[in-house]
Amino acid sequence: MTDLHPDDARPAAGADTPAAELRGITKRFGPVLAVDGVDLVLERGTVHAVVGENGAGKSTLMSVLYGLQRPDAGAVLRNGRELRLRSPLDAIDAGLGMVHQHFRLFGSLTVAENVVYRAEPGRWGVYDRRAAEQRVTELAGRFGLDVDPSARVDTLPLGVRQRVEILKALHRQAEVLILDEPTAVLTPGEVDSLFAVVRSMAAQGTTVALVTHKVREVLEATDRVTVLRDGVVSARLETARTTAGEIVEAMIGRGLKPAVNPRGAVSGEPVLEVSDLRLAAAPGAAGVHGVSLQVRPGEVVGIAGVSGNGQREVVESVLGLRSPDGGSVLLHGQDLAGLGVRERRGRGIAYVPEDRPGMGTAASLSVADNLALGHHRTPPLGSRARLSPRAVRAQAGELVRRLGVKTAGVNAPLASLSGGNAQKVVLARELHHEAPLLVVEQPTQGVDVGAGEEIHRLLLDYRARGGAVLLVSYEISELRALADRVLVMLDGVVTADLDAADATEEVLGAAMVHATRPDDGSSRAGS
Amino acid sequence: MDVFTLAFVAAVLTSSAPVLFAALGSALCGRAGVFNIALEGQLLCGAFTAVAVSWWTGSAWAGVAAAVVTTTVFSGVLALGAVSWRADPIIVAVGMNLLALGLTGFLLRELLDATGTFAPTGLAGLPDLDVFDGIPVLGALLGGQTLLVPLALLLAVAASLWLNRTSTGLRLRGVGEHPEAAASLGVSVTRYQHVTVLLAGALCGLGGAQLSLGNVTAFTENMTAGRGWVAVAAVMLAANRPLLVLGACLLFGAAEAWGFRLQGVGLPQQLTDAAPYLVTLIVLVASRLRVRRRLRDVDPVAAVSAAHPEAVVHPEETR
């Protein structure tokens, strides 16, 4: 492990005072040492990545910098002077800003109202709406943040809401901006424009701390990297002179062994056959205009595309959550029309939904109960009217052991698990009964690199046992690692059907945004 | 029936005013994130204090002032209970409503030596306005009213302007919508909520005084007779928006005034007394149905998940 002194990461010449600095920060939560003597130097006008797996201490460290947590030891410096941070208000006064992963916005208020809240322009207590909107327009223009100041925030997509959060900090003259996992909720296009904004802010002298666990973002958007593992700094790197491998190794303490589909000829009758699926577009639902696809045993078929181009609607039609206007869904040659979700699952469809906290799990229930959900009517777990808690716990104990789920016990609430472990619980439940078809959306969303690798391996093991997988993902790298075949969806039609070998980033990326609709030839502007 | 005469509209205003005061207070509380349904009890508290103090001092305005002060103090129960100590506001409010009912009945016997109704000759009621005399429409509408009636109407407009056009109004709305976000920007959530709850208490004091010294000049045990609940219904119907609260209260006032007219035609009083509550029920059910229908137009799955993919929470970093 390269454990440099912080000074070594500074440029040799012109080393002026850093915009912000953490010295020897130590913070304990009960018996757990969250961060242990961490130094962090944020040079003025740079983008500094703070990376690490979940639980490595990066959130704690940023909470200390922003005054949310008081450290047990160590100091926070701003422009070389020590700060006494009793609350985030002190941090705001000192020119710090933070965009939390879960936005703190008022949905029913407008963009401008959110931005100027408690720092409103106006006289005699009268709120000057025009001045507020002008201020927002001016700030937005300066940093390339595209927003409509008079729009209600709850009508805006997540990417735009994030811009509102950034504007809030800028309006309060933040010179050091902390972005906590800013890309977790963004589409690829939104990520690109966020990074453009970050670059523009850095160019104008703002210092940005980017907290993330995605190595690609580090390489794409930052100047310097501080890697945390188990509460200590495991590496300080300069982005231009490092590699993804080096960062990952510092994060997880070993090299990554990515799971890759061995590929090879796929044969057999299709498990899933979707033909000419049609769905009219509705408020909140994209249209689907004649989608056909087949998944055979031992095959992973990936669906690529920007979120909201009909992928979800196809998946929901297969599951029985939505009834299509036309077309058919066949499982082992049998038409599923008219069957509900439970019947379809009974016939052999397993499902890992994208919305893990909402649809995939019941957060307040125990790990054991979550592992039993959907199978609770089948012996040995239970029957029509009876549930056997003992059998539920026994099954859970076995699955938790087999998949290496990190939990305090099978009776712990699911909400206490990290994203990766919660996802393993969902996968364990869905794979346990060896359904011939697995429909899975975004399997590694919000999951650590290490856990993501294990999840990929579980999916490929299932494939090797002859399982058929329909995989929806917005991550091109994930599709390339797992899929035998990749379909690209745009505007409710399949615009490309590629062998994995041909599905390069360039080809997929182009098909995801540029293709035209074959039926009417019109193209849709990116959202 | 002479429904569209100025006299009828004037009667509607009289009937609406006490409900409107209470509903405005509750709406402001709703915007600040405190569910205030202690209106029945606060109105009763105001009505009793107004009559008692008016009787002792001989001045109706002293009664009004005392009603405002007493009810504000009484609303401190909700401020402390629901805001400071984080008790369930519904439980606190139910307690307040029951307490006010019992306590006013008890004090009526102990302090005023009356049972059931206290309406001695010489009890000073609020004077009718005379400044509008001779002005065509206003004279007919407000001539026979107390000052509190136009005040209630003005307060509805003022509340709307305050919420939507001032910095503190903006902050109040933020406090109610997302308290953590407001606190993270340095707004004291508890202070805003305390002040709003106490303000609602003051408004209920005015409403109670109008009821016992304006609409009639008497105090009767449980004289609010559900007006506080009608105000709660108005607030829900109007989704805490002051101008819509005004509209809803006028609707209920019209039902009550219409009820009095129906008695004149010979319908039994028990039936006509039910008119405002019947209207409340119908309007509430109708508004619910409309919301349900709007939701059904969209696909249920889409309504829940696809319409708000952004509502999906990613708890991986929460611990």
From TrEMBL, chain A:
SUPFAM superfamilies (UniProt xref): P-loop containing nucleoside triphosphate hydrolases
Keywords, comma-separated and alphabetical: ATP-binding, Nucleotide-binding
Residues spanning the signal sequence: none
PROSITE patterns: ABC_TRANSPORTER_1 (PS00211), ABC_TRANSPORTER_2 (PS50893)
ABC transporter domain boundaries: 20-255, 272-516
GO terms for MF: ATP binding; ATP hydrolysis activity
UniProt name for this protein: Nucleoside ABC transporter ATP-binding protein
Automatic annotation (TrEMBL), chain B:
Record's keyword terms, sorted: Cell membrane, Membrane, Transmembrane, Transmembrane helix
Superkingdom of origin organism: Bacteria
GO molecular function, one term: transmembrane transporter activity
Keyword Nucleus set for record: no
Signal peptide: none
Membrane topology designation: Multi-pass membrane protein
Pfam family membership, one: BPD_transp_2
One term under GO cellular component: plasma membrane
Chain segments annotated as transmembrane: 60-83, 90-108, 137-163, 229-254, 274-291
Subcellular localization: Cell membrane
Main location: membrane
Keyword Zinc: no
The protein's name in its UniProt record: Nucleoside ABC transporter membrane protein
Organism field: Blastococcus haudaquaticus
